[in-house]
Design goal:
By secondary structure, this protein is of the alpha+beta class. The chain folds into two domains: 132 residues, no CATH class; 97 residues, Immunoglobulin-like, CATH 2.60.40. It has four helices and 13 strands.
Length: 234
Amino acid sequence: NTSHTRANDSWWANKPSHNWWGIPWQASINDALFSIAKNFWNNSTAKPSVLYESAYEGFWTDAKGAREAGYKAFQNGIYGYGYGANGVWNDLYSKNPPDYGTDYEMPVRYISWYDGANLPGAQQLTHLKKFYTAIDWWKLIPRFDETAWSSFVDKNQSFIASDGQKTYVVYFANKVPSTGELKNLLINKNYSAKWFNTRNGMYTKIKTFTTSTGSWMVPDKPDSEDWILLVNQL
């Protein structure tokens, strides 16, 4: 079952033509997330990974689920995301007469190709590109559940990556405003902190701070939706 393949049990990993990992993750995006991402990230042969088939918007998930999959991928060292939408992936043009490129679960899940191409998650994912291309995303190292870097209230829904001690990025996907603590910051150095709204692409400044202990308590999110925290050394 390709949806459960990991790097260490891939049939193709040792072939000369194999130079990247395609991860068709159809299980819940939270199932063993850290262990699966770590398996690809820590593989003895370094290769880029792409999450190319998670749950499709309008079929197995909604806009939030599709949006979360992209951010969770990037925060866990999977630096590519293939978004899918109902109506588009299955080429749905007409319900009567039926014109289905793929008739799986039709006509119950029917929406037209045009409507599928304009689902809200696709537009919201343009903000994902905006966020990561504004920083040196290729320098981010996923810190997974390493306690030296963070202590979060919801460990399964908080995803941290950093460029050393210079830039910290945390995706909080939990359904409440609570956050947690950043660790391993440079002592007595200035940092800026701001929120990034994954739904509209807008930033909200939090504060400039220093720490004498190397730790900083992150304030609550602005609301219970998913948010990105961006902390930069000044």
